[in-house]
Amino acid sequence: MQAIAQSLDGIIDTVSAKHPLGVYLNTLKVGGVCVMLGAPDEPMDLPIFDINLRRLRIGGSVIGGIKETQEMLNFCGKHNITCEIEDISIDYVNTAMERLVKKDVHYRFVIDVQGHAYFLRTVS
What we know:
Elements: E1 8-13, H1 21-25, E2 28-36, H2 48-53, E3 57-60, H3 66-78, E4 85-89, H4 93-101, E5 108-112, H5 117-123
Parallel strand pairs: 1-2, 2-3, 4-5
């Protein structure tokens, strides 16, 4: 993470478990923004001094219910709004992380685990 320290304008954090937020906040530039979308079941530790010193902003949001989600999908379909992703296999994750460090990422990585042996054993 040192390679990308203080290089990002923003983070969208979707992790729904307790995790070391300070490590990720260190990647934000002065005045950076972190939006928390995940809902950890334990309180998160915040490096308040660093947040204040670097004027970081932390916000949060929860997704809407089924009705709101369907309205959003209908709106996107009506206006031809799509997302661009890079579909990768689980075997490519380490390479994807290296690409992230090199800033060679243009779209969100989506890990396709459906055909992976571990996934098949876990959900069977």
